[in-house]
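From the shared-data thread, chain only:
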Amino acid sequence: MNRMFVESGFVSLNKFGEQLCGDKVETINTDDDFIIVLADGLGSGVKANILSTLTSKIIGTMMASGLPIEECVSTIAQTLPVCQTRGVAYSTFTILQIRRGNEAYLVQFDNPNVIFLRNGHATEYEMNQKIICGKKIYETHIDCELGDMFILMSDGVVHAGIERTLNYGWQLPEITEFAVGNYEPDMSAHTMASRIGEACKGLYMDKPGDDTTVAVLRIRKRQLVNLIIGPPVDPEDDETVMQLFFSKEGKRIVCGGTTSNVVSRYLDKPIKTELNYEDPSIPPIGHIEGVDLVTEGVLTLGKVLEIAEGFSNNSDFYTQFRDKKDGASLIAQMLFEDATDINFFVGRAKNAAHQNPNMPLNFSLKLKLIEELSRRLEEMGKTIKVMYF
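Structure, as tokens:
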């Protein structure tokens, strides 16, 4: 397993009064490269959305095929319709390609300059100008290191607050200072994007004057998290499943009372349950020596799924779970923030309580819950493996 992992996340704000965002972020993950393209379509609304979508799709697909940037830009110029008002045929864009040799290839055209953080500090980088189809394109090559963070943005970010809270918008030096001040070594790409996006929303006083997008890419170590919920159908398989679960590297989460008892017997360690409710809607957590987190089962995971739905919504800045200590928030921190790879160990033994027709559907069907949570995690870029017993 490659110990380096490329993590990305982004948030977008639509221009006030518009149904569609004129910015588009496209990510492509191949065996050799990770590519992220942020395109900002000219204008706003439907036309801008179409231009940015086509631009990002075309560039992303061509870059992933190994074609040079000259061909990508030329193809866009020849393919997209020409804007009659402005006389140009494509949106502005930023491309960041992380090659498996850990080299970053950055291409920028008319978007605000990418902010590059190394060890939490703003770091300058060389930009080489190239003229393609009459446009000034800037290329940069950087040898990546663990912890490097790249912050891409559309011009809605630097326009934030114009004629409202700031005279000249949010200038790049101030955005950089904000990013440095909010940087944490263990923060996810999505969390950084959310913090900048939330600041833009505030500067616009909740009425963005332009489509606004922040996309963040972070180079980090791989981190495996293992989560087990439910005992196996055959109790005689308890020992085998426990051996497999504890043979995996990484952090361990145990969900459910019955599962906790099986783990307790296997480790010969007692379960210590907390009596205080951090959140009245979420059962308290427990503790077993040798396990990173012990929680209740489907009710808690159902709440984790609710958090995931907000977290993966690119217009939602929900990251409050980072500061909470209830079972669902702690699981969310480990799965959304800490993990790059996740193993789910799912026991298929039926729990009579979960068959109650009065219980909410997303809580009563454990397997459906895991399936939906896995899908959400894959949307976040996590590598997921689900094993049933």
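The chain has eleven helices and 18 strands.
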